[in-house]
């Protein structure tokens, strides 16, 4: 257990560290910097620069019209959503001309950034493949040769479209159509980067594949697009991490992630989101699980100003299983509006949602969940568990659970708990010599343990370190 | 004993819980090597006294003085009291979900030794003490007191005490809820901990723990005061006669004055 360090007020302490660890930015001379604002010319320009097929260009233009026509959601944090200035965002920036496959060929300033974030080291140690996105494009990509030989495709989405247009055409937007919501439409119109993964039938990719997303420039919008297809009986674990510099004005991150787990396949998708607190993180994530397939979203939200994200699993085939395990930490001025959706569209499907949130100071964490059970989806098992921990008198937590159950052969378990870091627990730990700060940190880490134990060790350590920083000098 | 200083002492301690005075002026001196026992009926203020001395926020000391190893206890927060050498084995230890016994124990020991202190001996010490207390080693990775039986909780309290080696140990109803085998194991643990340099204060309703741990002094607490003190024979008398005669004596004394 690490000792907590400074006892300054927590925001100052946190910003100091975020600035040195993640919050720096590189002064760069981009290959293509783009212009602020969104219109059909920008979309045309993006598509042209990427030398895309016409069908994709058309998808983009249609999606932009959908984006314009759809109203901003009237739920969630409407005040913050209303503050987004779409005209003040760069929708596309291309830092370098060509993607690199050797860290030595990546420009020094970008390589230094990823070095500071520990990406090349992680690649050597425990990853099967790495993708590093900087602004709009993936600047570095590599995968282990043995995985390549076994037929695993792991590319950035742009390369995926170029090299496997048939697969992309078949599945792109099939899980999340542009019409789904305003931000999915925006992403579909200006998407760039993200990951494209295909795992051949029966193959078990035993080591995780990782993508790291980095926003560098002020007012940069990042709109990566990820598509993962696990073919019959295959298994894959994908991890994403994200950070950005601290700027005084806000930036937008709006990703779309589509997963397809075909018959008997298994996908786990792990996110550690640690965006700086000027980022609006509005992400649509959805998976389709076919017969006897399993999809797990392991979703950690630590950073951002506002996050609205509700990973969804459509259980389309008999025996499919879905799980969302999420943790959110809402500190000063943050709102984590996160949750999960489970759509039971086939018999004998099961799902489990475990949501844990910590609100501290004036932070706000909301759980927003949907359970839908279709009429013919009999013998369904659903379990939802929401745990909220409040630290301080101003901290806030809300739950917005929705259940739409259209048949009576369903077993639903729902539990929701809100607790404060109890004085009794603190006393017990301090009576053994731990300072109050250390005791509180131990309780918070314990609260998160069901989540952190699911992470690869390196990420668990990093997450605990982040939480420790957030907890410094907190007032109970 | 004359040339020794008390390892722990308190004078005229008054304790309030939610505005109600539950301890009304109690004093005690514990010299190194001594075992004291406070006995008394339920609700006499025994547990309130030990919780207040440890620094529980709900038990407020409104009057009195207390010293651990010569240092002013009442100026210290609970964690400082612990690091100064005071330990309380709780009657109802709380569960801390997600925190394993081993991680907690390591953190506590590190807090006592200092954050840069060497901890390389921890694992060996910890496993040896678990074994001595007949605690299965799987408990190392279980969450602290989470789903433990009453007896398991008490053993883990004693484990903590032995690991931290306090100068003064308060044991609050450590015998309650234990079967005879567990009682013996726990008593052996306390005896193994106790030496010429530390002090023990057993707080208990029943005499049976005192069959295994010989007290030097027995005090009887009644309505927030220590009304009678004596040697081990006092405990036996209480076992035999119950607490009624104490009540009568107290009432008579009140009439006389």
Give an overview in words.
The complex is a heterodimer of chains A (476) and B (257). Chain A is of the alpha/beta class and 476 residues long. Chain A has two domains: 81 residues, no CATH class; 279 residues, no CATH class. Chain A is built from 13 helices and 22 strands. In chain A, the strands form two sheets. In chain A, strands 3, 4, 6, 7, 9, 10, 12, 14, 15, 17, 19 and 21 form a twelve-stranded mixed β-sheet that branches. In chain A, helix 3 packs antiparallel against helix 10. Chain A starts with 9 loop residues before the first helix and ends in a 5-residue tail after the last helix. Chain B is an alpha/beta fold. Chain B is 35% helix and 28% strand. Chain B is built from eight helices and twelve strands. In chain B, helix 4 crosses helix 5 and helix 5 runs parallel beside helix 6. The longest helix of chain B has 15 residues. The radius of gyration of chain B is 18 Å and the shape is globular. Chains A and B meet through helix 11 and helix 12 of A and helix 2, strand 7 and helix 3 of B.
């Amino acid at each position: 257990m690490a000792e907590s360090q400074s006892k300054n007020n927590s925001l100052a302490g946190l910003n100091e560290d975020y600035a040195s660890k993640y919050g720096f930015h590189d002064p760069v001379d981009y290959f293509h910097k783009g212009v602020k604002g969104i219109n059909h010319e920008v979309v045309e320009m993006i598509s042209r620069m990427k030398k895309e097929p016409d069908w994709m260009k058309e998808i983009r233009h249609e999606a932009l019209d959908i984006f314009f026509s759809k109203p901003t959601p009237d739920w969630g944090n409407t005040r913050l959503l209303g503050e987004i200035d779409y005209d003040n965002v760069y929708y596309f920036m291309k830092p370098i001309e060509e993607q690199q496959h050797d860290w030595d060929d990546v420009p020094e300033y970008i390589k230094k950034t990823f070095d500071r974030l520990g990406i090349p080291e992680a690649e050597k140690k425990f990853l099967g493949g790495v993708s590093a996105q900087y602004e709009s494009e993936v600047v570095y990509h590599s995968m282990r040769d043995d995985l390549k030989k076994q037929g695993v495709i792991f590319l950035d989405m742009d390369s995926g479209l170029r090299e496997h247009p048939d697969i992309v055409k078949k599945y792109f937007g099939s899980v999340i159509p542009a019409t789904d919501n305003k931000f999915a439409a925006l992403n579909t119109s200006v998407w760039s980067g993200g990951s494209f993964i295909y795992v051949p039938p029966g193959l078990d990719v035993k080591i995780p594949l990782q993508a790291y997303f980095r926003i560098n420039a002020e007012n940069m919008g990042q709109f990566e697009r990820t598509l993962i297809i696990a073919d019959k009986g295959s298994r894959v674990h994908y991890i994403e991490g994200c950070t950005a510099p601290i700027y005084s004005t806000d930036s937008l991150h709006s990703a779309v992630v589509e997963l397809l787990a075909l018959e008997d396949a298994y996908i786990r998708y792990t996110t550690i989101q640690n965006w700086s607190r000027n980022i609006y993180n509005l992400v649509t994530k959805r998976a389709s699980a076919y017969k006897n397939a399993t999809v797990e979203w392991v979703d950690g939200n630590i950073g951002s100003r506002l996050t609205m994200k509700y990973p969804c699993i459509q259980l389309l085939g008999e025996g499919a299983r879905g799980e969302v395990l999420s943790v959110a930490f809402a500190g000063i001025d943050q709102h984590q509006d996160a949750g999960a959706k489970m759509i039971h569209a086939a018999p004998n499907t099961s799902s489990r949602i475990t949501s844990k949130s910590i609100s501290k100071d004036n932070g706000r964490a909301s759980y927003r969940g949907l359970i839908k059970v279709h009429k013919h989806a009999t013998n369904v098992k659903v379990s939802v568990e929401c745990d909220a921990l409040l630290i301080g008198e101003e901290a806030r937590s809300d739950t917005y659970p929705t259940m739409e159950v259209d048949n009576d052969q369903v077993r639903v378990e729902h539990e929701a708990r809100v607790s404060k870091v109890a004085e009794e627990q603190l006393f017990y730990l301090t009576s053994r010599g731990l300072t109050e700060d250390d005791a509180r940190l131990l309780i918070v880490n314990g609260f998160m343990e069901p989540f952190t134990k699911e992470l690869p060790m390196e990420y668990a350590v990093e997450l605990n370190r982040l939480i420790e920083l957030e907890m410094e000098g907190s007032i109970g | 004993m004359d040339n020794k200083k008390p390892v722990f002492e308190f004078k005229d301690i008054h304790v309030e819980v939610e505005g109600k005075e539950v301890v009304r002026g109690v004093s005690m001196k514990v010299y190194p090597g001594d075992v004291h026992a406070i006995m008394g009926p339920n609700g006499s203020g025994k547990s309130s006294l030990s919780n207040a001395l440890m620094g529980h926020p709900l038990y407020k000391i409104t009057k009195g003085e207390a010293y651990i190893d010569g240092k002013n206890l009442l100026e210290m927060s609970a964690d400082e009291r612990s690091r100064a050498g005071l330990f309380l084995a709780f009657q109802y230890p709380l569960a801390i979900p997600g925190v394993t016994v081993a991680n907690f124990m390591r953190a506590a020991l590190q807090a006592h030794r200092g954050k840069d202190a060497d901890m390389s001996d921890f694992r060996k010490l910890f496993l040896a003490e678990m074994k001595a207390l007949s605690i299965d080693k799987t408990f190392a990775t279980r969450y602290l007191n989470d789903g433990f039986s009453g007896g398991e909780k008490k053993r883990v309290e004693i484990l903590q005490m032995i690991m931290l080696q306090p100068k003064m140990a308060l044991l609050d109803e450590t015998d309650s809820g234990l079967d005879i085998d567990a009682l013996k194991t726990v008593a052996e643990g306390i005896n193994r901990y106790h030496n010429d340099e530390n002090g023990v204060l057993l707080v208990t309703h029943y005499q049976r723990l005192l069959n295994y741990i010989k007290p030097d002094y027995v005090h009887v607490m009644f309505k927030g005061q220590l009304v009678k003190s004596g040697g081990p024979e006092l405990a036996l008398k209480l076992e035999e006669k119950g607490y009624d005669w104490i009540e009568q004596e107290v009432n008579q004394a009140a009439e006389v004055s």
